[in-house]
Each structure stands twice: as structure tokens, then as C-alpha cells.
Amino acid sequence: xxxxxxxxxxxxxKELLFSVLHKWRSMLLAAVLLAxxxxxxxxxxxxxxxxxxxxxxxxxxxxxxxxxxxxxxxxTCQRExxxxxxxxxNQEEYLEKSVLMSMSPYDxxxxxxxxxxxxxxxxxxxxxxxxxxxxxxxxQSYQSALTNAEFMDKVAKDSGLESRFLKELVTISVKSNNLxxxxxxxxxxxxxxAVLKEFVDGVKKFQxxxxxxxxDHTVAEVGNSLGSLVDLSMADKQKSExxxxxxxxxxxxxxxxxxxxxxxxxxxxxxxxxxxxxxIKYGVIGGVLGVFAVAFVACVTFVMSDxxxxxxxxxxxxxxxxxxTLPLASAKKAGKIDNWLNQMEGRCGKKDEEHEYGLICxxxxxxxxxxxxLMVLGCADKALLDQVAxxxxxxxxxxxxxxxxxxxxxxxxxxxxxxxxGVVLVEECGGSKYSHVELExxxxxxxxKKVVGCVVFE
Length: 458
Fold this sequence. Notes:
Blueprint (H helix, E strand, L loop, with lengths): L12 H9 L2 H28 L1 H45 L1 H4 L5 E12 L15 H13 L1 H11 L3 H5 L2 E5 L4 E8 L2 H25 L3 E13 L2 H30 L10 H33 L6 H8 L3 E5 L2 H4 L3 H10 L7 H15 L5 E5 L4 H14 L4 E6 L5 H6 L5 E7 L5 H13 L3 E8 L1
Parallel strand pairs: 5-9, 6-7, 6-8, 8-9
Antiparallel strand pairs: 1-3, 1-4, 2-3
Helix pairs in contact: 1-10, 2-10, 3-9, 5-8
């Protein structure tokens, strides 16, 4: 006798579905009861409120207040979403077009020029009153002229950039009272050099105007450099700007979810018709909840139950031959809906028992080579065991068929078991348990008796 002791149970979704559908009466009853309870309660509550003038006024005031708060929150949320979308668009454009954001921090081209600005100021020894030193004013004037919007727009246009992106690349600084430094960083050598030239030329352009406005001075270029360098602070800035875009997208997603989750306050029922409408709506909700509650219980019961559900599961779990299936009394009395479900599921439903017993006996005759005595036993109801034993005994010629009963409960069955050559099991769906069937097979295996097959009542 060989069967699989190490069977790993798997949930058959088809069987689970039909086990739920067979509870249609319970689902219908639960749906009607919950629909009546929930819908009736809501309808009665709404009707009482409609009939109570003072309560209606309070409900209307509360609804108006809730609606104002809802609209205010809705407007704020929509405005924040619009602002975030604009910020995201601007940030994406900045990351795409900014030269600073596209530069490699490990290959930055820097062009630098240092300009020495000298005035005719001299310190007069032994003089109480000295001339005014306007050197600092001259340098600051150059700094302001080179960074004003008009000049920046001109240089940006000549360089093929937008002014806002050029400002990130240029630094105009005062190193001392007489030294003006112009620093340009760019992604390639030629561009850095060209932009620096524009600014140095700008100094020459502004010199006559500043001389007229402030005073005579000279400008001399005392330093000029061009080279590639590594700037890790630029990498930090690039990461910061990319992180800002991610943060903006996260905030936008959170706001959109908040907007989707917002629910407009429900206006209280102001008429009997509205109260009835509320009752119907909650009645439908109650009906759906009733169906789901029964379906959930049916699913849990199916998964947790140890009772035999189908002949197919017995075959796969214990590797026993299914000699035939017979209808239970409940299946014989099933209505049209249950018969239709049984037919779709592949269960036996209403069958000609005599014809089915003929098929069972034919299967047994094909499997009992060398067997002269059979014992009918199993965990099914005693009446079913007696019925099968009687039918087989009258149809099988040359084979002695004896009634064995339940070997887990009947000591006489265990005593008779060694005397037979083979065993026919009889199990009942919804009555027999898989764990009991396994114990039966273990006892039969220990006595080295052959299990011819199993008759299953469904």
C-alpha cells in the first residue's frame, strides 16, 4: 500500500469558490437581515430628524459649517498642488538647462582675471586733513556695473545662455582695496575663456563712465589664469537640487492623495423621500456586508476544516483509486440552484444509483486479481457502509464481501481485517475527515492489506 504521507496541502481556488457559492442561502439570509437592520435603522433615524424641526436646524447649521471647512480645505489643497506643479516644472527646466547642473565636478574649467585699480590718492604726511580715498568706491562701482541685469543679459545673449544660468558661473569679488577679481567657471575651456573676455572688455567699457562719475584711475590686468580643477562643493549643490525635485514630487503626490481622500459633507435629509433614499442606500450597503461576512466565514471554514470535501482531493492526497461517487441524501433533495452548482463543479448530483453501482463493481473486478474476500470499511455513516456492502455482495460473483464498519471506532472491524484479502473504503464528503482516512490507511498498510479503491458519497 503506497500513498503520500508528506502531502503539502494546497488550496484549490475552484473548490474554495464553489464552497462559498453553496452557502448562497446563508448569504441571502444575511444580506436580507443586515439590509433590513441597517437600512431600517438609517431610515427611521432620518425620518425622526426630518420630523424634529429643532434637530433639523442644528443639522443644517452643522452641514453648512462642515461644507465651508471642506471648501476652504479644498481650495487650499488645490492651490498648493498648482504651486507645487509650477515649482516642479521650474525645477525640471533648471536641471535640464543649467550649465552648472550639467558640469562634472571633477572637470571644471575656470578662467580668472585679477585687475589692479589705482587712483591718484596719496597720504599727505604731517597733514591733519587728508584727501578722500575713493579707490574702494571705484572698485565697488565696477562690481555693480558688471553684475547689473542689463550687462548680464548682454553677456548671456552673446554666450547663448539665459542670464540666470550665467550668474551661477560668474563671481565678481574684491580681494583688497585695489584688486578686483573676475572668476568664470564653465564646462569647457573655450566657453570659460570667451565669457571671461566679455567681462574684462566690460571693465574697459565702463571705465570712462566711472571716471567721469567718480574720478581718474587706471586699470591694469595683473593676473590671468585658465585651467581645469575639481570642485566637490559643486557635487553637493547638484545633489541638493536633485533632492529638491524629489522632495517636490513627494509633496505633490501626498497632496494629490489628500485631495482624493477628501469627502464632501453629506447634506442631511430634509424630506421623507430623502429619508427613504438614505434607508435604501444603507440597506444596499448592509446587504453587501452580509454577503461578504458569510463568504469570509465560508472561506475560513474551508481552509481550517479537516473534513473531506471532494473525491478528487482524496485521490491526490492519499493516492487511492476512486471506484465511483454516489449522491448523499442531501444531494438527492437539492434544488435547482444546488444542482446547477453541483453540475458546474463536476459533482455527481442526481445519478442512477444502480448504474453507478454497476460501474463501481466493474472497477473492482478490474483491480481484485487474486483477491477472494473484500471488507467494506470507512469513516462514512454506518448506514452508507451497510448499503455499499449489500450492493457489492449481491453483484460481485466469486468474491466474499463483508461489512467492516469504522476501524477507528469498531474493535470487531479490526479483528476481522486480517481475515480479508482486500479493502474497499467508503468515505462521506462533509462527514469523513482527512486525518481519520490517513489513520485508516495506516492500519491497513500495517496489516499489508490491499486497498482496492474508495467509494465516495458526495
